[in-house]
Amino acid sequence: MRVLILSCNTGGGHNSCAKAIQKCFEQNGDVCDIADSLSFVSKNFTKMMSEGHSLMYRKFPKVFSVGYEVAEKRPGAFEKESALSVIFEKGAKELSNLIKSGRYDTVISVHVFPGIMLKKAFSDGEFSDVKTAFVATDYTCSPGVCAFDYDYYFIPDETVTKEFVSKGIPFEKIFPVGIPVNERFYENIPKNRAKLSFSISPAHRHLVIMCGSMGCGPVEEITDILSKTAESDVEISVVCGTNQKLFNNLYEKYKTTENIHIMSYVSDVSLLLDSADLYLTKPGGLSSTEAFSKGVPMVFIDAVSGCEKHNLEFFLEAGGGETADSCKELAEKCLFLLDSPERLSLLSANLLRRRKKHAAAEIFKTLGGEENCFCPKEIIEDFALKN
Fold it and tell me: Do 116 and 85 form a contact (C-beta atoms < 8 A)?
Protein backbone atom coordinates (compact mmCIF):
# COMPACT_ATOMS: atom_id res chain seq x y z
CA MET A 1 0.00 0.00 0.00
CA ARG A 2 0.92 3.64 -0.46
CA VAL A 3 -0.70 5.55 2.40
CA LEU A 4 -1.14 9.26 3.04
CA ILE A 5 -2.10 10.35 6.56
CA LEU A 6 -3.68 13.80 6.88
CA SER A 7 -3.00 15.34 10.27
CA CYS A 8 -3.37 18.80 11.78
CA ASN A 9 -0.99 20.91 13.89
CA THR A 10 -3.55 21.76 16.56
CA GLY A 11 -2.03 20.23 19.66
CA GLY A 12 0.27 17.22 19.71
CA GLY A 13 -2.33 14.46 19.84
CA HIS A 14 -3.27 14.22 16.17
CA ASN A 15 0.36 14.05 15.08
CA SER A 16 1.12 11.42 17.74
CA CYS A 17 -1.74 9.31 16.44
CA ALA A 18 -0.55 9.75 12.85
CA LYS A 19 3.00 8.68 13.77
CA ALA A 20 1.73 5.56 15.53
CA ILE A 21 -0.19 4.54 12.41
CA GLN A 22 2.73 5.42 10.15
CA LYS A 23 5.15 3.28 12.12
CA CYS A 24 2.87 0.25 11.88
CA PHE A 25 2.45 0.53 8.12
CA GLU A 26 6.16 1.10 7.54
CA GLN A 27 7.06 -1.88 9.72
CA ASN A 28 4.92 -3.96 7.38
CA GLY A 29 6.77 -2.69 4.31
CA ASP A 30 4.28 -0.10 3.08
CA VAL A 31 4.92 3.51 2.08
CA CYS A 32 3.25 5.82 4.58
CA ASP A 33 3.62 9.60 4.62
CA ILE A 34 2.15 12.25 6.94
CA ALA A 35 1.03 15.69 5.77
CA ASP A 36 -0.27 18.70 7.66
CA SER A 37 -3.65 19.31 6.04
CA LEU A 38 -3.68 22.97 7.08
CA SER A 39 -0.55 23.64 5.02
CA PHE A 40 -2.52 22.91 1.84
CA VAL A 41 -4.32 26.23 2.38
CA SER A 42 -1.06 28.11 3.09
CA LYS A 43 1.94 28.04 5.43
CA ASN A 44 0.69 31.20 7.12
CA PHE A 45 -2.69 29.58 7.66
CA THR A 46 -1.26 26.52 9.40
CA LYS A 47 0.84 28.76 11.65
CA MET A 48 -2.16 30.94 12.49
CA MET A 49 -4.38 27.95 13.28
CA SER A 50 -1.71 26.23 15.38
CA GLU A 51 -0.86 29.33 17.41
CA GLY A 52 -4.53 30.28 17.73
CA HIS A 53 -5.40 26.82 19.02
CA SER A 54 -2.63 26.99 21.63
CA LEU A 55 -3.76 30.45 22.70
CA MET A 56 -7.36 29.31 23.11
CA TYR A 57 -6.36 26.25 25.14
CA ARG A 58 -4.05 28.18 27.44
CA LYS A 59 -5.80 31.52 27.82
CA PHE A 60 -9.43 31.22 26.73
CA PRO A 61 -10.59 27.62 27.33
CA LYS A 62 -14.19 28.70 27.98
CA VAL A 63 -14.35 30.38 24.57
CA PHE A 64 -13.09 27.18 22.96
CA SER A 65 -15.66 25.15 24.89
CA VAL A 66 -18.55 27.42 23.87
CA GLY A 67 -17.43 27.31 20.23
CA TYR A 68 -17.31 23.52 20.30
CA GLU A 69 -20.77 23.29 21.84
CA VAL A 70 -22.17 25.61 19.16
CA ALA A 71 -20.62 23.39 16.47
CA GLU A 72 -22.19 20.33 18.09
CA LYS A 73 -25.64 21.90 18.03
CA ARG A 74 -25.22 23.59 14.65
CA PRO A 75 -23.01 21.47 12.37
CA GLY A 76 -23.56 23.95 9.52
CA ALA A 77 -19.99 25.20 10.03
CA PHE A 78 -18.85 22.25 7.90
CA GLU A 79 -21.47 22.58 5.16
CA LYS A 80 -20.57 23.59 1.63
CA GLU A 81 -21.41 27.30 1.82
CA SER A 82 -19.89 27.95 5.24
CA ALA A 83 -16.84 30.18 5.69
CA LEU A 84 -14.86 27.25 7.07
CA SER A 85 -15.70 25.13 4.06
CA VAL A 86 -14.73 27.89 1.63
CA ILE A 87 -11.34 28.27 3.34
CA PHE A 88 -10.51 24.56 3.42
CA GLU A 89 -11.67 23.94 -0.12
CA LYS A 90 -8.79 26.19 -1.19
CA GLY A 91 -6.46 23.41 -0.16
CA ALA A 92 -8.26 20.75 -2.20
CA LYS A 93 -6.24 21.25 -5.38
CA GLU A 94 -2.89 20.90 -3.60
CA LEU A 95 -4.17 17.82 -1.78
CA SER A 96 -5.34 16.37 -5.08
CA ASN A 97 -1.93 16.98 -6.65
CA LEU A 98 -0.20 15.33 -3.70
CA ILE A 99 -2.37 12.20 -3.94
CA LYS A 100 -1.56 11.97 -7.66
CA SER A 101 2.17 12.61 -7.36
CA GLY A 102 2.52 10.26 -4.41
CA ARG A 103 0.43 7.59 -6.16
CA TYR A 104 -1.37 6.96 -2.88
CA ASP A 105 -4.03 4.26 -2.85
CA THR A 106 -5.16 4.96 0.72
CA VAL A 107 -5.84 8.25 2.53
CA ILE A 108 -6.33 8.37 6.32
CA SER A 109 -7.56 11.45 8.20
CA VAL A 110 -6.86 11.86 11.92
CA HIS A 111 -8.68 15.21 12.13
CA VAL A 112 -12.04 16.49 10.89
CA PHE A 113 -10.63 19.38 8.83
CA PRO A 114 -9.21 17.28 5.95
CA GLY A 115 -12.69 15.91 5.26
CA ILE A 116 -13.74 19.20 3.68
CA MET A 117 -10.76 19.14 1.33
CA LEU A 118 -11.29 15.49 0.48
CA LYS A 119 -14.93 16.14 -0.41
CA LYS A 120 -13.85 18.76 -2.93
CA ALA A 121 -10.86 16.78 -4.23
CA PHE A 122 -12.92 13.62 -4.74
CA SER A 123 -15.97 15.38 -6.23
CA ASP A 124 -15.16 14.59 -9.87
CA GLY A 125 -14.68 10.86 -9.24
CA GLU A 126 -11.01 10.89 -10.16
CA PHE A 127 -9.99 9.05 -7.00
CA SER A 128 -12.76 6.46 -6.95
CA ASP A 129 -10.22 3.67 -6.46
CA VAL A 130 -8.56 5.33 -3.43
CA LYS A 131 -9.59 3.93 -0.04
CA THR A 132 -10.36 6.54 2.64
CA ALA A 133 -10.51 6.25 6.41
CA PHE A 134 -11.18 8.49 9.39
CA VAL A 135 -9.54 7.83 12.76
CA ALA A 136 -11.27 9.47 15.75
CA THR A 137 -8.88 10.78 18.40
CA ASP A 138 -11.54 11.56 21.00
CA TYR A 139 -14.23 9.43 22.63
CA THR A 140 -17.02 11.12 20.71
CA CYS A 141 -18.28 11.81 17.20
CA SER A 142 -16.91 15.33 16.81
CA PRO A 143 -18.61 18.00 14.66
CA GLY A 144 -17.34 17.74 11.09
CA VAL A 145 -16.84 13.96 11.04
CA CYS A 146 -19.61 13.78 8.44
CA ALA A 147 -17.98 16.38 6.17
CA PHE A 148 -16.76 13.55 3.92
CA ASP A 149 -18.11 10.06 3.33
CA TYR A 150 -15.17 7.85 4.31
CA ASP A 151 -14.97 4.14 3.52
CA TYR A 152 -13.89 3.29 7.08
CA TYR A 153 -14.41 4.93 10.48
CA PHE A 154 -12.04 3.76 13.21
CA ILE A 155 -13.45 4.75 16.58
CA PRO A 156 -12.12 4.50 20.17
CA ASP A 157 -14.64 2.14 21.75
CA GLU A 158 -17.83 0.18 21.16
CA THR A 159 -19.67 2.45 23.57
CA VAL A 160 -19.50 5.40 21.15
CA THR A 161 -20.78 3.40 18.16
CA LYS A 162 -24.35 4.47 18.78
CA GLU A 163 -23.33 8.14 18.69
CA PHE A 164 -21.57 7.75 15.33
CA VAL A 165 -24.57 5.91 13.89
CA SER A 166 -26.92 8.64 15.18
CA LYS A 167 -24.83 11.20 13.24
CA GLY A 168 -25.40 9.30 9.99
CA ILE A 169 -22.32 7.08 9.81
CA PRO A 170 -23.28 3.67 8.34
CA PHE A 171 -22.87 0.96 10.97
CA GLU A 172 -21.03 -1.39 8.62
CA LYS A 173 -18.28 1.23 8.14
CA ILE A 174 -17.51 1.54 11.86
CA PHE A 175 -14.61 -0.32 13.49
CA PRO A 176 -14.10 0.19 17.26
CA VAL A 177 -10.36 -0.49 17.36
CA GLY A 178 -9.23 2.11 19.93
CA ILE A 179 -7.08 5.22 19.49
CA PRO A 180 -3.63 4.50 18.01
CA VAL A 181 -0.71 5.31 20.32
CA ASN A 182 2.98 4.51 20.11
CA GLU A 183 3.54 0.79 20.67
CA ARG A 184 5.68 1.54 23.74
CA PHE A 185 2.50 2.50 25.61
CA TYR A 186 1.35 -1.12 25.33
CA GLU A 187 4.42 -2.20 27.33
CA ASN A 188 5.18 -1.74 31.02
CA ILE A 189 8.53 -1.23 32.71
CA PRO A 190 8.45 -2.34 36.39
CA LYS A 191 7.40 0.69 38.45
CA ASN A 192 10.35 0.57 40.85
CA ARG A 193 12.85 0.48 37.97
CA ALA A 194 11.04 3.28 36.16
CA LYS A 195 11.10 5.43 39.30
CA LEU A 196 14.85 4.97 39.62
CA SER A 197 15.22 6.22 36.03
CA PHE A 198 13.93 9.57 37.27
CA SER A 199 15.95 9.46 40.51
CA ILE A 200 12.85 8.74 42.57
CA SER A 201 12.98 6.33 45.47
CA PRO A 202 10.88 3.19 44.85
CA ALA A 203 9.54 3.63 48.39
CA HIS A 204 8.08 7.03 47.50
CA ARG A 205 4.70 7.65 45.91
CA HIS A 206 4.93 9.42 42.55
CA LEU A 207 2.40 11.88 41.11
CA VAL A 208 2.90 12.95 37.49
CA ILE A 209 1.21 16.20 36.39
CA MET A 210 0.98 16.89 32.67
CA CYS A 211 -1.78 18.91 31.04
CA GLY A 212 -1.29 18.26 27.33
CA SER A 213 1.64 19.16 25.11
CA MET A 214 0.70 22.84 25.50
CA GLY A 215 0.83 22.88 29.29
CA CYS A 216 -2.63 24.37 29.77
CA GLY A 217 -4.93 24.41 32.78
CA PRO A 218 -4.37 25.47 36.40
CA VAL A 219 -1.15 23.49 36.81
CA GLU A 220 0.63 26.27 38.67
CA GLU A 221 -2.18 26.67 41.20
CA ILE A 222 -2.46 22.95 41.89
CA THR A 223 1.31 22.55 42.24
CA ASP A 224 1.34 25.40 44.76
CA ILE A 225 -1.31 23.67 46.89
CA LEU A 226 0.46 20.31 46.71
CA SER A 227 3.79 21.87 47.67
CA LYS A 228 2.21 22.93 50.96
CA THR A 229 0.20 19.80 51.70
CA ALA A 230 2.05 16.77 50.28
CA GLU A 231 4.22 14.71 52.60
CA SER A 232 7.93 14.44 51.88
CA ASP A 233 7.58 10.89 50.52
CA VAL A 234 5.23 12.11 47.78
CA GLU A 235 7.30 13.00 44.71
CA ILE A 236 5.66 15.34 42.19
CA SER A 237 6.84 15.60 38.57
CA VAL A 238 5.32 18.50 36.62
CA VAL A 239 5.70 18.42 32.82
CA CYS A 240 5.12 21.84 31.21
CA GLY A 241 5.42 20.80 27.56
CA THR A 242 5.79 23.72 25.16
CA ASN A 243 4.59 26.24 27.75
CA GLN A 244 7.92 27.94 28.42
CA LYS A 245 6.39 30.60 30.66
CA LEU A 246 4.89 27.92 32.92
CA PHE A 247 8.21 26.09 33.08
CA ASN A 248 10.16 29.25 33.95
CA ASN A 249 7.70 30.19 36.71
CA LEU A 250 7.59 26.75 38.30
CA TYR A 251 11.29 26.02 37.97
CA GLU A 252 12.24 29.27 39.66
CA LYS A 253 9.76 28.63 42.46
CA TYR A 254 10.60 24.96 43.17
CA LYS A 255 14.20 24.47 42.02
CA THR A 256 15.28 23.86 45.62
CA THR A 257 12.26 21.77 46.66
CA GLU A 258 13.49 18.19 46.82
CA ASN A 259 10.22 16.38 46.12
CA ILE A 260 9.00 18.60 43.25
CA HIS A 261 10.55 18.11 39.81
CA ILE A 262 9.80 20.63 37.06
CA MET A 263 10.31 19.46 33.47
CA SER A 264 9.80 21.28 30.19
CA TYR A 265 9.74 18.45 27.67
CA VAL A 266 10.00 14.72 28.35
CA SER A 267 11.27 12.58 25.50
CA ASP A 268 10.08 9.31 27.06
CA VAL A 269 6.54 9.85 28.33
CA SER A 270 6.00 6.09 28.32
CA LEU A 271 8.73 5.56 30.91
CA LEU A 272 7.45 8.52 32.96
CA LEU A 273 3.98 6.97 33.09
CA ASP A 274 5.51 3.64 34.12
CA SER A 275 6.99 5.45 37.11
CA ALA A 276 3.67 7.07 38.09
CA ASP A 277 1.41 5.87 40.86
CA LEU A 278 -1.13 8.49 39.76
CA TYR A 279 -1.48 10.79 36.75
CA LEU A 280 -3.07 14.25 37.03
CA THR A 281 -3.98 15.40 33.52
CA LYS A 282 -6.63 16.94 31.32
CA PRO A 283 -8.78 14.40 29.45
CA GLY A 284 -7.12 14.75 26.07
CA GLY A 285 -7.87 11.91 23.68
CA LEU A 286 -4.26 10.80 23.13
CA SER A 287 -2.76 11.60 26.54
CA SER A 288 -5.57 9.79 28.34
CA THR A 289 -5.35 6.81 25.99
CA GLU A 290 -1.60 6.52 26.60
CA ALA A 291 -2.24 6.19 30.33
CA PHE A 292 -5.29 3.99 29.58
CA SER A 293 -3.05 1.58 27.65
CA LYS A 294 -0.73 1.26 30.64
CA GLY A 295 -3.44 1.09 33.29
CA VAL A 296 -2.23 4.22 35.08
CA PRO A 297 -4.99 5.68 37.33
CA MET A 298 -5.93 9.26 36.47
CA VAL A 299 -7.33 12.38 38.11
CA PHE A 300 -8.75 14.72 35.50
CA ILE A 301 -8.55 18.50 35.30
CA ASP A 302 -11.52 19.69 33.25
CA ALA A 303 -9.37 22.46 31.80
CA VAL A 304 -10.81 22.90 28.32
CA SER A 305 -14.06 20.93 28.07
CA GLY A 306 -15.31 20.88 24.45
CA CYS A 307 -14.57 17.43 23.00
CA GLU A 308 -12.65 16.61 26.17
CA LYS A 309 -15.83 16.59 28.24
CA HIS A 310 -16.77 13.43 26.32
CA ASN A 311 -13.37 11.89 27.07
CA LEU A 312 -13.87 12.74 30.73
CA GLU A 313 -17.29 11.10 30.76
CA PHE A 314 -15.88 7.97 29.11
CA PHE A 315 -13.11 7.45 31.66
CA LEU A 316 -15.30 8.25 34.65
CA GLU A 317 -17.87 5.75 33.43
CA ALA A 318 -15.13 3.19 32.81
CA GLY A 319 -14.02 3.59 36.43
CA GLY A 320 -10.45 4.47 35.48
CA GLY A 321 -10.25 7.98 36.85
CA GLU A 322 -11.73 10.60 39.12
CA THR A 323 -12.15 14.37 39.02
CA ALA A 324 -13.05 17.38 41.18
CA ASP A 325 -14.32 20.90 40.63
CA SER A 326 -11.63 23.12 42.17
CA CYS A 327 -7.84 23.19 42.36
CA LYS A 328 -8.00 22.56 46.11
CA GLU A 329 -10.30 19.58 45.66
CA LEU A 330 -8.13 18.18 42.85
CA ALA A 331 -5.02 18.39 45.05
CA GLU A 332 -6.88 16.76 47.94
CA LYS A 333 -8.16 14.03 45.61
CA CYS A 334 -4.63 13.24 44.44
CA LEU A 335 -3.25 12.99 47.97
CA PHE A 336 -6.19 10.86 49.10
CA LEU A 337 -5.69 8.40 46.24
CA LEU A 338 -1.93 8.23 46.77
CA ASP A 339 -2.70 7.20 50.33
CA SER A 340 -5.24 4.59 49.13
CA PRO A 341 -3.38 1.76 47.32
CA GLU A 342 -6.50 -0.41 47.12
CA ARG A 343 -8.42 2.34 45.34
CA LEU A 344 -5.52 2.92 42.94
CA SER A 345 -5.40 -0.81 42.18
CA LEU A 346 -9.12 -0.83 41.41
CA LEU A 347 -8.85 2.16 39.06
CA SER A 348 -5.92 0.49 37.29
CA ALA A 349 -7.75 -2.84 36.97
CA ASN A 350 -10.78 -1.09 35.49
CA LEU A 351 -8.59 0.50 32.82
CA LEU A 352 -6.73 -2.69 31.96
CA ARG A 353 -10.02 -4.57 31.63
CA ARG A 354 -11.35 -2.03 29.09
CA ARG A 355 -8.22 -1.12 27.14
CA LYS A 356 -7.73 -1.94 23.48
CA LYS A 357 -4.26 -2.92 22.35
CA HIS A 358 -2.43 -2.14 19.12
CA ALA A 359 -5.10 -0.02 17.45
CA ALA A 360 -2.71 0.91 14.62
CA ALA A 361 -2.19 -2.77 13.83
CA GLU A 362 -5.95 -3.32 13.68
CA ILE A 363 -6.25 -0.40 11.25
CA PHE A 364 -3.48 -1.91 9.12
CA LYS A 365 -5.20 -5.30 9.03
CA THR A 366 -8.53 -3.80 8.04
CA LEU A 367 -7.17 -1.51 5.32
CA GLY A 368 -4.64 -4.06 4.13
CA GLY A 369 -7.28 -6.52 3.01
CA GLU A 370 -6.37 -9.10 5.63
CA GLU A 371 -8.99 -10.73 7.81
CA ASN A 372 -10.87 -7.98 9.65
CA CYS A 373 -10.42 -7.64 13.38
CA PHE A 374 -14.17 -7.93 13.93
CA CYS A 375 -16.83 -10.20 12.52
CA PRO A 376 -19.56 -7.88 11.13
CA LYS A 377 -22.35 -10.33 12.01
CA GLU A 378 -21.18 -10.62 15.62
CA ILE A 379 -20.87 -6.85 15.93
CA ILE A 380 -24.36 -6.27 14.58
CA GLU A 381 -25.89 -8.89 16.89
CA ASP A 382 -24.03 -7.49 19.92
CA PHE A 383 -25.03 -3.94 19.03
CA ALA A 384 -28.68 -4.95 18.65
CA LEU A 385 -28.69 -6.65 22.05
CA LYS A 386 -27.20 -3.61 23.80
CA ASN A 387 -29.36 -1.00 22.06
Answer: yes
